[in-house]
Amino acid sequence: MNQKYGTNNPTLSLCMIVKDEEKSLPTCLESVKDYVDEIIVVDTGSTDRTVEIAKKYNAKVYHHAWENSFSKARNYSLRYATCDWILIMDADEEIEKKDAYKLRDTIRDDDVNLIYMPAFSKQKGGTNSSVYLIERVFKNYLDFHYEGIVHNALKFSGPCKNENIVFYHYGYHLDDEHMERKFTRTSTLLKEQINNDPSNPMPHHFLAIAFSDRNMNDECIDEALKAIRLFEHKNINTEVKLLTCYTASFAFFNKDDLVNAEYYAIKSVNSYSDYLDGYFILSSIYMRQKEYDKCIKATNKYLTILEKIISNPAGTLRIPYNNINNAWHAHTRLAIVCFEQNRDREGIKKLKETVSIAENKDGPYLSIAKYFTEQNNFTLAEKVLHIGLKEYPRSKRILYYISELYENHNIIEKALKYFKILLDIYPDEILAQYKTGLLHMKQSRYKAAIDVFKLLCSGPQEHIGALYNLGIAYEQIKDISHAKDAYDRLLTIEPENAETLVRLGSLFLNNSCLYNAKECFLKTIKLGKHLLEAHLALSRIYISQNDVQSCVASCDQILKCLNLPRDTTINNLSDLSRLYISIGKTLLKQQNEMLSGFSFDIAELLGPVVTESDDSQQDVVTVNGSSNEFRNPV
To answer: How does DSSP assign 16-84, residue by residue?
Structure first.
């Protein structure tokens, strides 16, 4: 035993469990290597360079097979520690550089057995998204150990304290594939724990959180309520129950069940009056309900608590606070309420307060404008965007948003005005150029649109949308040759662009280039798109080519597209004509006047060509969706 309790120079072991952590481990060990006396690493089956990296930092590496229990693996690491104190870290954590030196000082305190320290969950290079206190450092040789197969909890005794030595945890910001694997592993183990210990609320609580992280709201609610019932049945008034209530409230909020969302949020803040997350979700609920006085009260309470947490992270609870990065959202809500209540001067003041703390200074203007847009309040959305442009006249995002706001409300001239301002500042902004061309099309300014689209198409990279609309614009001014050129150029890039095939086929058909038209429409059908238009066009082509059998086959496919009866018997071309009239009427009912007129034209081309006295000499054609045969009269 190597105990130095009470001495001025106690020693510190870093204990870790790892598996395939080659990406994270160097950052972790580099942050702490100068402040610990030994590094203990228990590897549970790495197949990458994890062990090699650990040994570069002089770690003592021990191999243990994975036994489906984080606590077992963690306890193995504790047994190998030889120092007076133990520091626990995961491979996806690092210590704040400015705080690392404090580790040596804090373990000189012999009056405590365990030290809690704040951990911030964050993305590398990003902002903190949550904070919680965790059992980070504790004395060795006191038989402290972990329990729980997934979310292992340290079992300890004796006095403890909190220290503002900050750690950062990156494990909750993995890519989708890693997050899905983590969810599958965690949920499987938690379900196993529930089967083995059904009266324990903790695995239900953690499973609810796992479901919440995957936006599985119904499953989250089910597990959260089970956990709450078990907490209350056992009269357990733990901090974890606050988080369970918040998790339930958040899931109900996502389902727009605001009554239950409010119930569980209030339940959390009644249990602990300074519960940050409870007040933030209440602020969100009251905002959605437009209960503005309640919203203001909850939001201000949230901001007051947040200020305390930021100034003293070690004063937080031992559960994650999930809304520490939402101060600017809170200020935004207060600004929105002021504008809603016609207190514009106060709204502008609140807006400026929001801007002062926002990472992206134009973000609050966009957030408020988006809110009012969703509320169909064009006037306030426009007002806020103009305030934003006055402060940040070069904001690309605000210029885009106000241009699109005017576009969506069909105020075309103003939309064009702000797109022009944007392009004067950012002349290479392709999306703004393209939208300008589309607005000219909307106003039937086809030559202006052609100039814009030609410019876009002259760049090093082909712009598919510009080429397509260039063809349409040429069609509108009857310049068919250039329209065909645009469509041909597009099809060399995207040979399976069905919309372009239909437009090019239509041009060929109108110019009686039947072979080329037929080729376009057959390709469209092969792609399985625009089947109705393609078969109507082919019907016209087949009639022109005296190919009645193929016309009957296309007619059958049109009936199929429209869900019309297909067991009609055709005795002559008049019967076929009547089918196209029926198709035209159906399309007219569907308010598709263009295709309806096209179908009537086909019917007229077919016409009543057989008299009653000739009926006995006609062969019979049946349209039934299978093999259609047509033999000319003898």
So the answer is: EEESS-TTTHHHHHHHHGGG-SEEEEEES---SSHHHHHHHTT-EEEE----S-HHHHHHHHHHH--SS
Structure tokens at 221: 């609610």
Q: List CB contacts of 608: < 8 A, sequence separation 6 or more.
A: 573, 574, 577
pLDDT at 105: 94
Asked if the model's pLDDT at residue 5 lies above 60, the reply is: no
Distance CA 440, CA 466 (A): 13
Quote the strand ranges of 67-178, DSSP E.
85-88, 93-95, 114-122, 128-139, 145-147, 153-155, 160-162, 167-169
pTM beyond 0.90, yes or no: no
Q: What single DSSP character describes residue 615? A: G
- Alpha-carbon distance of 226 to 247, in angstroms, equals 12
**Helix pair 412-425, 430-442: axis angle to 10 deg:** 160
How many helices (H) and strands (E) in the chain? 27, 13
Neighbouring CB atoms inside 10 A of 247's CB total: 28
Q: How far apart are alpha carbons 368 and 388 in whole angstroms?
A: 10
Q: What are phi and psi of 439, to 5 degrees?
A: -65, -40
pLDDT higher than threshold 50 for residue 350: yes
Buried b (16+ CB within 10 A) or exposed e, 112-129: bbbbbbbbbbbeeeeebb
CB contact at 8 A, 394 and 362 = no
Predicted confidence at residue 628, as pLDDT, reads 30
Structure tokens that stand for 469 in this block: 């609309």
Residue 359, token pair as written in the block: 């990472």
Q: Residues 185, 188, 192, 198: is their CA dihedral positive or negative? A: positive
**Angstrom distance (rounded) from CA 521 to CA 539:** 11
| Pair 44, 19: CB distance under 8 Å | yes
Name 513's Cβ contacts closer than 8 Å, sequence gap at least 6. none
Residues 464-484 as b or e (16 or more Cβ within 10 Å = b)? ebbbbbbbbbbbeeebeebbb
Cα-to-chain-centroid distance, residue 347: 30
Higher pLDDT, 634 or 400: 400
Domain ranges of the chain: 12-169, 176-325
CATH-assigned architecture of domain 12-169: Alpha-Beta Complex (3.90)
Fold exhibited by the domain 176-325: 1.25.40
Element (H, E) at 319: none
H or E element, residue 570: strand 569-570
pLDDT digits over 100-142, tens only?
Answer: 999 999 999 999 999 999 999 876 555 667 888 999 999 999 9
Which pair of tokens denotes residue 218? 């119904």
**Percent of the chain scored above 70 by pLDDT?**
93
Please enumerate in sequence order all residues whose Cβ is within 8 A of that of 560, keeping only pairs 6 or more positions apart, or say none: 566, 625
Cα separation of 389 and 384, whole Å? 9
Find all residues with CB under 8 Å of 44, minimum gap 6, and list them: 17, 18, 19, 64, 65, 66, 73
| Alpha-carbon 227 to chain mean position | 29
Q: Are 50 and 19 in contact (CB under 8 A)?
A: yes
When pLDDT is averaged across residues 503-519 and rounded to a whole number, the result is 95
For tokens 């003041």, the residue is 349
Which residues, 6 or more positions from 446, have their beta carbon under 8 angstroms from its beta carbon?
A: 440, 473, 474, 476, 477
Q: Which stretch of 163-177, 304-318, 505-519 has the lowest confidence by average pLDDT?
A: 163-177
